[in-house]
Each structure stands twice: as C-alpha cells, then as structure tokens.
Amino acid sequence: MALAHGHAASCSSSLRTDALHFIGFYWRFIGFYALFLSLIPFLNGVDPLLTYDRAALLRLRPSVDVAGSARWEPGCASYEPHGRCCWLNCPRALSTQAVMCRPSVRPSSRRKHRRRRGKRGSRRVRRRPGSLNKRLARSGPASDPMVPRCLLDYSAPCPGNSAGSDGVSAPRHGRSARRSRQTGVCWENLRSVTGTELEGTGSVRDLGAAAPLQTRFGLVNARSVLNKTFILRDFFIQHDLGFLCICESWIPFGDTSSLLELIPPGCSCFNIPRSRGRGGGLVVVFKSSFPCKQLTPTMSFSSFELCLFELCISPRLLVVLIYRPPKTDSNFLNDFCDLVADCILKYDYVLFFGDFNIHICCPDNVLAKGFFNLLESFNLTQWVSSPTHARGHTLDLVISYGLPIMNLVTLPPVFSDHSPILCDVTLPCPVPVCEAPATRFRALDAETISKFVDCMSVRLETFNPDPSNVDHYSQHFDVLCNQVLDVVAPLKLCKSRPRREPWLSDVTRACRRACRSSERKWKKDGLQVSRELFRASLVAYQDAVRAARMAYFADIIETNSNNPKILFKTLNSVLVYQEPSSMSPTAAGNSEAFHKFFVDKVSGIRAVISGNSVDPVPVHPLPPTLSSLNTVSYSELSKLVARQKPSGSPLDVLPPRLWKAAFPCLGPSLGQIINGSLSTGVVPAALKAAVIRPTLKKPGADVSVIENYRPISTLPFTSKLLEKVVYQQLVSHLADSDLFEVFQSGFRSGHSTESALLRVLNDIYLSLDQGTSVLLLLLDLTAAFDTVDHAILLDRLERWVGIKGSALDWFRSYLQNRTFCVKLGDVFSSWEGLRWGVPQGSILGPLLFAIYLLPLGSIFRKHGLSFHLYADDCQIYSPLCQEKGHSIQSFVSCVNEVKSWLMSNYLHLNEGKTELIVFHPNSRNVDRYADLGPLSPY
C-alpha cells in the first residue's frame, strides 16, 4: 500500500513537472508569436535579404573589412541612390557556397538538465564568464549592435575566389582557440579592421579632417592702438587668435603706419578710421589663411561705428564689429534693429562683437531692457555675463545668430579700462587650411657651384653641336646644363616660413621676458602693485621694440640716401599699408581663367577695330639705316652679366645667380648663343617662351576681380641678356640719328616720370600766370602693349627708324612665334601663341612701343597742341587763347584725328578712363569753358 502510494506520488510529481514544462513552453511560444506579429508592420516592404543603413556604417571607426575571407569584394554589393547598401543583385550573396552567413541567433539545441555538482547537487551554480562565449563566440566589433552578425562571423572560403581575393580562410571557432580566462575572449577570432574608402573622399579618417574648424576670436577696447601696437601684436600671437576685433583704435584717416606695426607676419587687417575728434575707430586683425572680404554697409548709421566683413565660406559667415559712443541713446535701437534685420535676411550665421556702452548688468536700465527685447525678437544670443569694465559694468558684448559661442573668457583689464574677451567659434563649415607654400629649389653654395663648374668643364670639352643652327645649339646646351645640375644640386621641396623681424634684438627679447615674468607674478598674488608693474613692463616693451624698428629703417635710409629706388621702397613699406580686398586667387582653375581672359580680351579689342594704318608723311628725312647687329665680345658680355639683375623665369634651366657665379665656365657657350642669334637674325624658340605673372594694375584693387590684373611677362635670364645687347644698339642708333620723340619719357636715361611731370606742370603754370585757361586731356589706352600689330611695328622699324637687312630679320624673328602661359602658385596654364603685342616685363617691349607711337607727334604738331608721352600714357594740353589762335575747335579736331589714328593702328581708346581737366586762373569763371562740344565716338 505504501509502495503504491509512493508510486502514485512519483507519477503525480512527474506529471506536474511535465505540465509545468508544457505551460512554460506554451507561454514562450505565445510570447515569440506576439513579438513576431508586432514586428510585421515594421517589416512590411523590407527585403528579406540584409539591408542596412550606410550612414550607420560610416559612423563605425574603423569599419569592418570582409572581402574574400575577411575583406569586402568590390563587385559584391550595389549602392542604391538613397545611400543603403543592399545585396539583392549580388550573385555571390545568393550562393551558399560563396558566402555562408550565419544567423544572428543560433538555433537552440535540446534543453539539457543542469549538472549537479557534489554536495551542491540541488543548488543552481552561476556560470563562469567564459561559458557564454562558448555559445556565442563573439568578440571585438561583434559586440556592437550596429553591426550585423552575418557580416562579422567568418565563413568558409569560396571554392573559386574572384580576382582580388587572397583566398586565406580565417580561423574557425574551436576548442583549440586560445581564450582569456577572465573574459572568455577568443583572441584568434579577433580580426583586423581597416577604414572603408568613400567615393571621392578617401578613407574614413579623412572625415575627421573635414570637421568644422574651431576658431578663436578676441575683442579688445584698446583706447588708442597708436601706443599699443606691439603689445596687441604680441597678444594676438600669444593667444593664437584667428581674429582680433579692436574698438577705439583712435587711428585717424590716412594714418596707416601704425597698422604695419600692429599686424603680425602672415596676417592682414581691415581698418575703419575714427570719424570723430575723440574716440572711435575700428580695426580687425586676422590670419591671411581665412578668406575674408570687407563689405561696405548699405545703410549709414549715426549712433555707432561699423565694420562689416564676410568669411567667404559656404555657408557664408558675416562678422559685425560695432562701437557705440556714449550718449547716443535716441536712435541706437532703431539703427541696430535696421542693421540686424538687414544682416539676418542675407546670412544664416552672423556674429556681433563690440563695445555697446550699454549697462546690461543693470536690470532697471531702460536702454538695456529695450536692447534685450530687440535681441529676443531676432532670436539673437548674448554670451557675455561677467563685467568687462574696470568699474564693474558689462559693456563689451558678443552676440551670435545661428552659431554657438564656447569657452568664453573675460580677462582682467590691462591694456585699458576694458577687459579683453576671448571665445571659440565653431565655423559652419571647414575652412581650407592654407599651408605654407612649398617651393622647389636647388641648394647652391660655394661647394656646389665649384662642383658644377668642374663637371661642366669636363662635359663642355666633348660638347660640339652645330653652331650655325643657334636654336639647335641652345636646346642641347640647356639639356647639358640640366643634366649636370641634377647631379650636383638636385631639386628639393621646401616650405617657406615667415621671416622674423630683423629689428628684434637681445634688448627687445629681454623686455618681452620681463613682461612674461611680471604677468606671472601678478596672476599669482593678484596685488595691485604687481598689476602696475606688469603695465609698466608692457609700456617698456612697446617703447623698446618701436625704438629698435626706427633705428633699423633709419640705417637703411642713411645707407641708401643716393638710391631713390630703395628709398621709395623703404618708405612705402614703413608708411603705406595696402588693405586686402579679398583672398588671392591660387586655385588650379584660376590659371586657365586668367589665360582665357588675357586671350579673349585682346581678341575682342582686335575684333571691334578694323585697322588700316595710314601714317602721316614723316617730317624728317629718311633715317640712316641699321642693316646688321654687332656681335659682343667676351669682356662686354662679362660686364653685362655682372650688371644684370639676377631675375629670371620659372623656365630657366640655370638660376641667374649660378650664371653670374659660373660665368667663366659658361661664358663662351653663352656668347656663342647670343652672337649666333645676332649674326643669323634668328631668336631661339626657348628664349621666346614667356610665363605670365598676373599683377594688380593699382594698389588696393579688388584681387578677386580678374579685370584688375595686367599680364607681366617673366622671360629667361639668357633672353634678357640677348635683349639687353640689342637694346643698347637700338638706343644708340636712335640717339645718333635723332629719331627719339622729344617729348617721350620713360625707359630712357634722363627722361623719367619726374621730368614729364615738371614739364607739364610748368607749362600749365606759365599759362595760368598769363591769365589764360588751359585744357588738359589725359588719354587712356586699353591693353596698349597687347594689341600692337606686328606688321605695323616692323613697318615702323623700317620706315621711321631705318632697320633693314639681318637686323630687321632679327626683330621679325623676335616678334613672331612667341608663346606664353600663366602661372599661379605652382600651377601652369596651357600654352598659347602670341599673335599680337610686345611682351610686358621685357627690356625691348617699352622701347618698341615708343617706336610704334612715333607718328602721333606729327598729328599734335599739325594742330599746334602741346603734348607729352610716357609709355602708353598721353597728355594733350593747350591754352585757350583766341588771340594766339588756340580755340576749343582745334583741340576737338586734334582729338578726333588722334582717335582715328589709334583705331587704324589697333589701339583702343578707353573713353571711360580718359579725363579732361580745365585749369583757370580764376576758379569762379571756370563754368564758361565747360561746354567743349561733342567728341564723336568711333
């Protein structure tokens, strides 16, 4: 009975256990089924094959590489336009032999009873850490939920590997794999991961380089920059600022010498001079690597001074610097409201810096309340919360629209009674980092030059090309020089560094160290006496650097007192600052843009002018002829090379300095090239290739406007020597035959701009002293040097100058088949033939242009007008005296004839830049001479 009862009890116990198992399995099944039903809406329209978000994969750094056995294969995935990588069209993805994708959750095996160990047979034992890894065998990147398990697990290698697959299978999960006892990680299953390359952008690491740039801004109320130039300059460098906004610069209009002291190397500035007798003035100092452009306000404001500049990035950023003088409460809010409304309509990101002179720290201040209401209405954010004035008020503000301000620091007031403010701004897009320009150079020292001379002497002993073919001889000589130079001094790449100021000495460095020491002492103890010592050391540093700079330039002026060229250059570098208008063009496409502009400009001018040159009959008899050009001796060539300026072209095989140093070795070959060209009347083709360097026409012009540039040719050093030899002979012929235009200045000894100015002014003053009015017409020609017709110029040389024979053949060879390209930075444009014009920047160009204009003097003398020429500039002037036969009608007739002659000679008169000035002894009666009659256009 007891046995039956025990048997029944055991049966009921097993039934109870089975029922519990069944119930547990049932509820688990219901739970999984409910989960599956809840996922159906999300899986609707989703392809059963693996599809994942490409942006999510890009966030993985580094990404996973699984081609072949452990890397992606190029043809195994297709990218849809919306940026999701799918495996629908991949033939290998459909093959189980090609890729064995394991499921993310392995099918569970038959449930096993838990082991019962020893005395703890009825207790549950906690699993060791490694036990879970035995089942999952996942480690490293596989733990990231963003990575699909099927892409991370290893698969068996494909029977036939495609091209590019290494065919090496990865280690499998097995018992022999070495594991960590603490974490259960199988180290053999960890795989090396490389960055995924993006199309057109490089590796994933490149994305970090394209991160938004954080730039540091500074705001200082200097209360006169004039006595703090070097202090503020050191402040800019010490804090590594990108922009320094200065209020109350107190710089008057026309005084830019203090800006040259203020600007550190590699920086530029925008200057708004003070508009009142007291206070005012704005200056922005910034690194030249930032593409900035100063803007002109569209509205004028009477309640504050304004400086606007744009950071030329995409999207654009506008920076506004404001100084509001005290006691201008009436119109300030209205003016500032108009300014903000105009700015935020044009820009998505705006920064406002300045001294607003508003006590925003006082809650009862009426102006402060209205100011905060205005900021709130425009969704502007004001970031300064601490006092910025020595008396405890907050006057200097930093306001932003669309940009956050970070790390804002208010420093103690030292320069003035206002505290400097520093802050970091994350620009809306990365700014291209302009690294220091790298140049290729050859290390030429005394030892290198000696080796070059020795090697060249040996090679020249066997150098014997045909000297009668000067073009062939020149080419072989260049090849020989290049080969020897590559051996003794190969090209090296070097990045240029900003030069240090030459006036800095041990005294100035000691003053700077004293400033640093006193600053540290003041920051340590915070005493007022330490602060005063720090300020005194700053003043001493300013005085020491300024005195050293003055002594440096005074020495240059005293040493070159008889050299006007160096004197003018030195004075301009000390007194004149050219404000930047925009960033300089350095892109690769700009060289082609300049090339196209220069070609199209001349072609357009030639197209609108139908030249039909009819020269007036020469008033002088036929000139003596110059039939041939004389060759030069070795001694004459040696003196010419010694006097020649060491400037050349990027196409020079040998640097000009090496020509001068190694002339005893190279002189005979150079003389062979020059004398062969003079005797045969042929100019080598290598000497007619010019590299155009675009140069601004006027200082301060907008460098972003391509029309503000003129083409300046840089020619090889040997070409300049050849031109110099011909120039001396041509000038001698013109002077001996009295063929120069008497009133032609420029590029002639004793005829400079000063002589032209003195003559014109003297004649005008003499007429005014006699009580006679004077008309002065200043003619301006468009691209005069570039539109010269070669056939007309050769006719001038033959008929007006008397050049004939082989000499005329030499000039014909010099003008024809010339080529040029444009160079910006290290980028060259394509080459183009020069069909018209004489090269600007050459030695013969200005002289040939003066010969081209010789007939103009006959026209002016025929009408009895005074004139003076300087290169392509022409001044026509005449007194208005009826008694002497000088009338306006004769003046107008002369001008019309000049215009017709210019048109027939392919010269374009720029009427927009041609100016007419009327001089009268009594300025109140000048109106009666204002009507000069019409000038008929052609």
What proportion of the residues is helical, as a percent range?
25-40%
| Basic shape | globular
Uncertain spans: 1-9, 45-113, 117-127, 129-182, 193-211, 581-588, 926-938
Write out the strand line-up for the largest beta sheet, numbering strands in chain order. 6-7-5-4-15-14
Cα end-to-end separation: 139 Å
Count of DSSP strands: 29
Organism: Nothobranchius furzeri (Turquoise killifish)
Transmembrane segments: 25-43
Domain Reverse transcriptase: 676-938
Keywords: Membrane, Transmembrane, Transmembrane helix
State the gist of this model.
The protein contains 25 helices and 29 strands. Residues 1-9, 45-113, 117-127, 129-182, 193-211, 581-588 and 926-938 have low confidence and may be disordered.
Structure description:
The chain has 938 residues and is α+β, with helices and mostly antiparallel strands. It has 5 domains: 44 residues; 128 residues, no CATH class; 215 residues, Deoxyribonuclease I, Chain A, CATH 3.60.10.10; 70 residues, no CATH class; 285 residues, no CATH class. The chain is built from 25 helices and 29 strands. Strands 6-7-5-4-15-14 form a 6-stranded mixed β-sheet, with no helix packed on it. α16 packs across α18, α18 crosses α22 and α21 crosses α23. The chain is globular. The N terminus and C terminus are likely disordered. InterPro entries: DNA/RNA_pol_sf (IPR043502), Endo/exonu/phosph_ase_sf (IPR036691), Endo/exonuclease/phosphatase (IPR005135), RT_dom (IPR000477). Keywords: Membrane, Transmembrane, Transmembrane helix. This is Reverse transcriptase domain-containing protein.
